[in-house]
Automatic annotation (TrEMBL):
The keyword Iron-sulfur applies. Keywords: 2Fe-2S, Iron, Iron-sulfur, Metal-binding. InterPro entries: Rieske_2Fe-2S, Rieske_2Fe-2S_sf. Residues 4-99 form the Rieske domain. Its cofactor is [2Fe-2S] cluster. It comes from Candidatus Methylocalor cossyra. PROSITE patterns: RIESKE. This is Rieske 2Fe-2S family protein.
Length: 103
């Protein structure tokens, strides 16, 4: 595990999606209502469009390209079913959000 700081804890909030650039990589911190903050690769598993530009309503994330829908609690696709956003380990440490992007 190689956790690195990606943003301040105060930068994220329940019900919100936050896109973050880490080096050349784009990730999203998605925190669904009633859930926990989670980190995902920003690339949509369909055709790779950035989900950082997606429309998140606190529960569902809609890709702006072709309208695939993802569950904000776990990154699983709901429409169509059977796909999964790539998740990275996330932790909060000393007021910072830390993510492990190692393969
Ligand atoms: S790239 Fe996201 S739905 Fe097609």
């Amino acid at each position: 595990m190689a956790f690195q700081d990606v943003c301040k804890q105060s930068y994220i909030a329940e019900g919100e999606l936050v896109p973050i650039k880490v080096g050349k990589q784009e990730i999203v911190i998605m925190w669904a209502d009633g859930g926990e903050p989670k980190a995902y690769e920003a690339r949509c598993p369909h055709e790779g469009v950035s989900l950082g530009q997606g429309d998140f309503n606190g529960r569902l994330l809609y890709c702006i390209a072709h309208g695939w829908v993802f569950d904000g609690r776990n990154g699983r696709s709901l429409q169509p079913a059977g796909w999964q956003m790539k998740e990275y380990p996330l932790r909060i440490h000393n007021g910072m959000v830390q993510v492990d992007l190692s393969p």
